[in-house]
Amino acid sequence: MPKSQRLIQLIMMINAKKSFTVQELADELGLSTRTITRDLLELSELGVQLYSVQGRGGGYRLLQERILPPISFTESEALAMFIACQSLEFFGSLPFDEGARSALHKFYHYLPADVQEQIDLLRHKVAIWSPQRPMLPENLRVLLQALTQGAVVTIEYSSSEGTSKRDIQPFALYASAGYWYCPAYCFKRQDYRLFRADRIHSAQLNEETAGLEEVHKRTLVDIPDENSEQVTFVVHLTKNGVRLLESDSWLGQAIIRNTDGSGKAVVQVAKKHIPFNADFFWKMGTDAQVAAPEEAVAYIRQKIRDMAALYVAKDGPHP
């Protein structure tokens, strides 16, 4: 077996073991302990961080994260991977430290020169933009760690009711419009809730409270609807309004189109989120007219009055 192939196989074996001895590796590969010791030394020089465990039952362990074996990519796959990873740089915070940036650097470094030239050409021509939102990356990392362990997290969270401390068990983590969201079981409310990461002031793993298995098994497709009262939002759209809204992953599916290209959107939302949804359509200006519920219409009318007051002086409008 060529040496390079043997080293790759050795990395794969090490990855699969929590701990190992030189004799175990020698027996599995059919090699001498002297050869295995020499190979481990070479892997260490290449960056595979190992440490020895002294005493009875000792051996070796990986010092930090496991090292993945080389993977072959086609040229188009390499371009797709680079663009996808580069898009993460536009997020204000990420839940995996500098892992994305470090992986992108390694990935680029080992690409053929001609592929690097293609990436350099596209680097400032293709991007997946995401608004940067202020949030604490260390909190995201705690939530991600809790997901992998099925653990409970104690958070300090700000909501419309004020700031409170509560225990939650996350079962998913996703980003939308630059914000990170964490659907989780709230032990305080004894129900599922959706938490926005930028409203989490602190997060710490709770080793005293055991996680619930049924929560850990849930996925993104199991995100429950709000338990609060629901209302029907009806919004009339101009032709341009349809165009602006059709790309939205949620609202785009709710558009009912007219033959002239205009249309309307009909969606169910939590009653307590009426102002949030009304503000969204307010930003579309004259391309969206909220028709229902009446509370949303009244909210928009008040915003119009408030806006008019800003631009009309007491002694009459300015020229």
Description:
With 319 residues, the chain is an alpha+beta fold. 37% of the residues lie in helices and 24% in strands. The chain contains eleven helices and 14 strands. It has helices at 3-15, 22-29, 33-45, 75-87, 99-109, 113-122, 137-149, 213-216, 239-245, 274-282, 294-311, and strands at 50-53, 59-62, 152-159, 162-170, 174-176, 179-186, 191-196, 200-206, 230-237, 255-257, 263-270, 288-292, 312-313, 316-317. The strands form four sheets. Strands 3, 4, 5, 6, 7 and 8 form a six-stranded antiparallel sheet that branches. A four-stranded antiparallel sheet has the order 10-11-9-12. Strands 1-2 form a two-stranded antiparallel ribbon.
